Amino acid sequence: MDLSALENDGYQVVPSVIPPEEIPALLREADRLKTVAEGDAPLDQRLRVLRSKTRSGERLVRGLQNSHHVSAIIDGLRLHPAIGCILQRILGPDIKTVLTSIFWKPAGEPASGIAYHQDAGFRTPPSAFRDLAKSYLQLAVALDAQDDRNGGLRFVTGSHTQARLFVRQEQSVLLGDAGESELRDMGLSPNKVCAVRLEPGDVVMWNAFTVHGSGPNRSLDRDRRSFTIASMRAGDCDAGIDAYVHGQLIAATETGR
For residue 55, with 0-12 CB atoms within 10 Å meaning exposed, 13-18 middle and 19 or more buried, which class applies? Predict the structure, then answer.
């Protein structure tokens, strides 16, 4: 695999990682988990629901973290052989899963943007997440076709090269919309922004220091559902759970972790 785009730009699209015939089951599971996240029943304590509000003040469920602990289907996607090939090519044979997330952006929802940020800013304390510039990789799997119109990812090309954190003004990334003012507040140029286009089953991966975000879903008829995996080289991470040990996968739902 040619990794020049990841190394030079800080992100890279890998097309057709998940076969088309596997997408319908993933979409059904994503919708089922959304219903669970929106419900009032007590959730497994390892899960975290990401919420914000619509412009009219109604509660809006934006995402669900760590569903691999309770869903064999999502855990299977986390440990998909094609994803494992990518991760081990970049991180080696011993890998930990730091975090997984499902994100939902319903069609026509103006309050569904995510502010520009760097994943490195959330990996605390630093003593538990070491050498992030080289030991960390974030992957996003598109479950729907994605472009800038329905809230696809935007990356600031080359923003990872300094391996440093840029100051953000917002307290929560769920309150932003990846607009030009956010970049200027961080001292970055909007001219470096690239909005990626993905088809279902495509993967985009990026560095811990790559500045990225996404606008709201402005499409009136296209939802945007995606699944993300934050992974680290096991020797540099004291958090999360094992994904691969000596190249052998470890399923979370099989071990009950």
Answer: exposed
